[in-house]
Amino acid sequence: xxxxxxxxxxxxxxxxxxxxxxxxxxxxxxxxxxxxxxxxxxxxxxxxxxxxxxxxxxxxxxxxxxxxxxxxxxxxxxxxxxxxxxxxxxxxxxxxxxxxxxxxxxxxxxxxxxxxxxxxxxxxxxxx
Length: 128
Prior knowledge:
Elements: H1 2-44, E1 82-85, H2 92-98, E2 101-111, E3 114-124
Antiparallel strand pairs: 1-2, 2-3
């Protein structure tokens, strides 16, 4: 009887350890993805403007209101409506290990005669 209890405890411990080790990569990539999405949304706040003329104070390099990592367009405004691909913003480890890609979609709606922009960030990855 005591040996049966010991076997059951050992199996439970092994199962718990195994599930902990296998879930760690999922939690790690999920955490990294959340951090990268938050970082992108924070940076995009710098691009909110009505005057998109090229000035010395405009974000981007050169100052042009273009997000430097946006590979979906050559010189578009970072908050132009549509999908923007910014995978190069992700750490190399995320891109190589998990095949991670990142993009954001800007939706424009009119509210009391003013254009309002809603940004939705999407990060896709595969846990091996």
